[in-house]
Amino acid sequence: MTMSDMTENAASTSVTINDVKKALSDRDELDRLIADYEGVLASHGITLDTPLVDEEDYPLANVDIYAVRPVRRDLIRARNDRIALTVKIEKMLHELHSSCGGSKPPSDTTNATVEKPVVHRTSNEVFARIGVVSPYSPADNAGLRGGDCLIQFGPFHAGNLDDIKQMLEFIQDSIEKPIRLTVVRGERPIRLELTPRYWSGRGLLGCSVIPMTSAKII
Description:
Blueprint: H1 3-12, H2 17-43, H3 65-102, E1 128-133, H4 138-142, E2 149-153, H5 164-172, E3 179-185, E4 188-194, E5 207-210, E6 216-217
Antiparallel strand pairs: 1-2, 1-5, 2-3, 3-4, 5-6
Helix pairs in contact: 2-3
C-alpha cells in the first residue's frame, strides 16, 4: 500500500458518528445562545431588524442603545456560526454515509442471503400518529407523511408497546438499520421502510411521533 493509499483511506474514515454527535450538540448550544440573545432583544421591545434611530436619525429614547448593540452583533455572529456549522454537518454526514455505503462485506458473506425477521402484527389498533415531517429527513425519504397513523413500528404494535421509551431505545439501537413499519393513511394500510440516521436536522427520524397526548421529535 502506497502512502497516497494510506492517506486516502484515512480521509475516508476521518468522520465518525461521535464527530457528528459533537457537531449536532454544538449546534444545539448555538440554538440556545441565539434564543437567549433574541430574548434579551425582546425584553427591550426590539428585534434584530428594528431600527435604533427615529426618522430624524436620533437614537430611540425608549431603547438602551448601548445595551442592545453588542447583543445584536453577537446574535448575527451566532446565526452565521450556525449556518456554517450546518453546512459542515451536512458534509460530515455525506462523508460518513459515503464511507458506510462504500464498505464491502466480508468475502465469506458476500453471497449469503440475510433474511429480515418477519414481524407478525397482532393488532390493527393505532398507537401513535405522525406529526410534522421535516423535509429531506429520514422520515421524509421513507415516505412518511404528517397524519399517518402507526399500527406497527418494527416489533411494536398496540398490543405490546407499554411506553414510547421502548420505541426510542429501539430507534437508538437501529441507527443505519432499516425498520419496517405500517401506517394507516386515509383508510389504507401502507408498509414502509425507515432507516434511522444522523442527518442535518433534529432527531434520528426527523418527525414528531404523537402517542396519546404528548409529541416527541425522534
